[in-house]
Amino acid sequence: MSRTIEIVEVGPRDGLQNDKTLLTTPVKLEFIDRLIEAGVKRMEAASFVNPKLVPAMADSAEIMDAVPRDKGVSYIGLALNERGMRRAIEARCDEINYVLVASEGFGKANQNATPEETADLLDRIAVLALDARIPLSATVSVAFGDPFDGEVDPGILGMLAARAAAAGAAEFALGDTIGVATPWDVERAIRIVRDAAPSLKLRLHFHNTRNTALANIHAAVQNGVTIIDASAGGIGGCPFAPRATGNVATEDVVYMLERAGLDTGIDLDRMISVAHWLEETALKHPIQSALAKAGGFPAKADPA
Questions:
Q1: Most buried of 9, 62, 223, 286, CB within 10 angstroms?
Q2: Is 238 among the catalytic positions?
Q3: Mean pLDDT over all residues of the chain?
């Protein structure tokens, strides 16, 4: 098992996109700066989607124009279609993440497309990112369950993985958009994806809607996954998925992994401070993080 687990911080995008508090661009940039100070080296910072549908992401181009470029951080932009892909390229995103969908009900609500249609579109537009020499990844929404259709056929994950690899994606993420996965589901999905596309790097993205996210991350790591998404404070949720509550909290993930002797490169105390800042200053409402309430262990003595 790898002794290093890469955390992809998704708070500035997935964390904020569905929050009732709309942050100003300067406050978002402060959020990004605080994450960098905590050790984050890779983060979702922007989403190039219709601003009428996701108003929290309307300033994504401005964010990408202002983020610090000298800190060794890779900024990821989300795209759902050709227009979004072109906007992400123009905004100088370091990586572009395209969204596939595993089930038709959610696909129609979120992207007005079936799973096969999202894969067909990736075939057509992946060349834009590849020609621009920008690394391309693909994330599968509702990979473990659809809020409209219910159970998702795990076999479709293999099809989407093979299509993503053929289109030129270097990384493939399974997204538990509504937080229904269990560790056994995670193990099965990893086997299916690896059988279908063994060359793809695999990333896992869990929401903690039903309190299984940390158990699912344990299962992923035990099965060789070394890249995990997480959101500071556990903020987030999908605006197109009913009752899709927050992501798993970055600080909770870091605590668990580091207690196991795994290195994340994240300063836990600083990440807890980011969560407190979100709750008390930026968002001004309670957050889901356990570590923000309990702190780390062993507890550090307060300075005299």
A1: 9
A2: yes
A3: 94
